[in-house]
Amino acid sequence: CSHSNELSPNDPDWFFHKAAAIVRQIYITKSKTLGVGSIRSLLGKKHRRGRLPSVTSRGSGKIIRDIVLQLKKNGYVENYASTDGATLGLLVTKSGRSELDKIASRVLKK
């Protein structure tokens, strides 16, 4: 979901797939500076501009912020605060990590 898309999503569960991709990126990336801007770059894609050269486009920030807010509400993700109190990025909580591991083991068994 960004201005680089040529068509709207036709999958009715696209929001859940995007949320799974975002929480997976936060889980895999051990960087404590991963925020919405970094996720936008990770989920971006090639923007085709007709006869002009293609450029890289960033993902939609509104959708990512909404998903991160819902993940924070459910207790899967939290803000990482440094020792001086500045918020640097996103981390998966202990309960979120255990829930994601349970889901991954169920998928692996199938």
Describe the structure.
The protein has 110 residues and is an alpha+beta fold. A hairpin with a 5-residue loop joins β3 and β4 (87-92). The two termini are 30 Å apart. The chain contains 4 helices and 4 strands; from the N terminus they run ααββαββα. The longest helix has 16 residues, at 94-109. It has helices at residues 14-28, 36-42, 61-74, 94-109; strands spanning 45-49, 52-57, 77-81, 87-92.
Write a brief caption for the model:
It contains four helices and four strands. With 110 residues, the chain is α+β, with helices and mostly antiparallel strands. The strands form two sheets. Strands 1-2 form a two-stranded antiparallel sheet. The protein has a two-stranded antiparallel sheet with strand order 3-4.
Biggest sheet descriptor: 2 strands, antiparallel
Overall geometry comes to: globular
Helix percent band: 40-55%
- The termini sit apart by 30 Å
Mean pLDDT: 86
Low-confidence parts: none
Strand arrangement across the biggest beta sheet: 1-2
What structural class do you assign from the helix and strand content? alpha+beta
Number of strands: 4
Order of helices and strands: HHEEHEEH
Q: How many DSSP helices? A: 4
Query: Over all CA atoms, what is the radius of gyration?
Result: 16 Å
